[in-house]
Amino acid sequence: MKNLIRSLEQRLEAILDGVAGRMFHGPLHPTELAGRIIRRADLSVTDTERGPVAANRFVVSASPDDVDQAADLSRVEAELARLVEEAAAERGWRLEGPTKVELKTDPRIRTGEVKVEARIEKGPRDPWCWLVGDHRVPVCVNRAVIGRAADVDVVISDPHVSRRHATVWREAERVMVADLGSANGTTVDGVRVSDEGSEVRPGSVIRFGPVAYRLEM
User: Fold this and answer.
1) Separation of alpha carbons 143 and 83, rounded Å
2) pLDDT tens-place string over residues 21-58
3) How many CB atoms lie within 10 A of CB 201?
């Protein structure tokens, strides 16, 4: 988390050119908010059949004395949301929708304190990778479930593909694929993957049973 927050601080300095320091007063700073949000996201993680799911909607409330209420905070909100996305990719969290961070003031909150509310909010996400075969299939959520069933994240309409065949995700700067006990197995570049998962790199060929796709990032 320290590396992520340091990265945020550097980006904020470059993007806002010192403006952030004038938006927030006293001890409150975007890097402090970043730490609070990531800790709150971590506490929100719930283990599900699709893997660990984290909150993606955050409302951060601070005292009016700590925030310049005339300032446009949208760029800071966008950078804080991007940090949550990076943390999710690093830790293997599934986010059910795009990350949104809202900063607001609340006179009931004492100076120097912050309240962070978090919840899961479903919605469309941009692809983080593609499976390329006869056509190009977007993979939009981390811990994406791939199979023949209509309710999975990536649907492959082939009778040789199991209803819940495999899952693909990002974690610790790697892309992983795991078989979900499918009838015909999952391979990466010809090597069968386990239930625990195997690393897959851009350009690798993943076969779900006999159906082949190339991973593109």
Assistant:
1) 18
2) 567 776 677 777 888 899 999 999 999 999 999 999 99
3) 11
Outline where DSSP puts E strands in the chain.
Answer: 46-48, 51-53, 57-62, 100-105, 114-119, 129-132, 136-139, 144-147, 154-155, 166-171, 174-179, 186-188, 191-192, 198-199, 205-208, 211-216
- Cα–Cα distance, 54 to 172 (Å, whole number): 16
Angle between helices 30-44 and 2-16 (to 10 degrees): 140
* pTM of the predicted model over 0.85: yes
Q: In sequence order, what are the residues at sequence separation of 6 or more whose Cβ sits closer than 8 angstroms to the Cβ of residue 4?
A: 34, 38, 83, 86, 87, 90
Question: If residue 76 lies in a helix (H) or strand (E), which one and from where to where?
Answer: helix 74-91
For 111-135, the DSSP string reads TT-EEEEEE--------SEEEESSS
Q: Which residues pair with 146 in a beta bridge?
A: 154, 166
Query: CA dihedral in degrees (197, 42, 55, 98; nearest 10)?
Result: -70
Residues 6+ apart with CB under 8 A from 62: 28, 103, 104, 105, 106, 109, 113, 114, 115
**Could you tell me which residues are beta bridge partners of residue 178?**
167
